[in-house]
Amino acid sequence: MSKIQVKNQAGCASSWAFSATGALEGQYYRATRKLESFSEQQLLDCSEGYGNQGCEGGLSTNSFRYVQHQGGICTEGNYPYLGYVS
């Protein structure tokens, strides 16, 4: 069985994005029995309109609304973490 690697938020206050993707990854695994790593960077870059503030903070609930309205979230491989808003 593969494992999700330990993640590092670097100098960015993005714990809210990591907690949101962690919860989504857990639910995805429950539904599919497949491990997948989702993109915290997408939440940093794109969820400001839902109340999040990039490296200045945010909420998991705002992230969930963003993902729901977007119809999903990219994988870490397709949208890798940079540790700053790009």
How would you summarize this macromolecular structure in one to three sentences?
This protein is mainly α and 86 residues long. The chain has three helices and no strands.
Structure description:
With 86 residues, this protein is mostly helical. It has a domain at 15-70. Helices cover 42% and strands 0% of the residues. The chain is built from three helices and no strands. α1 (15-32) packs across α2 (40-46) and α1 (15-32) crosses α3 (60-70). The longest helix has 18 residues, at 15-32. The protein is globular, with a radius of gyration of 12 Å. The mean pLDDT is 94.
**Beta-strand content estimate:** under 5%
Q: Label the overall shape.
A: globular
Biggest pleated-sheet summary: none
Task: Give, in order, the helices and strands.
Answer: HHH
Secondary structural class: mainly alpha
What does the radius of gyration come to?
A: 12 Å
Please give the alpha-carbon distance between the first and last residues. 33 Å
Catalogue the unreliable spans: none
Please state the average pLDDT score: 94
- Strands, count: 0
Fraction of residues in helices? Answer: 40-55%
Quickly count the helices.
3
GO biological process, one term: proteolysis
Domain Peptidase C1A papain C-terminal: 3-86
Protein name: Procathepsin L
InterPro entries: Papain-like_cys_pep_sf (IPR038765), Peptidase_C1A (IPR013128), Peptidase_C1A_C (IPR000668)
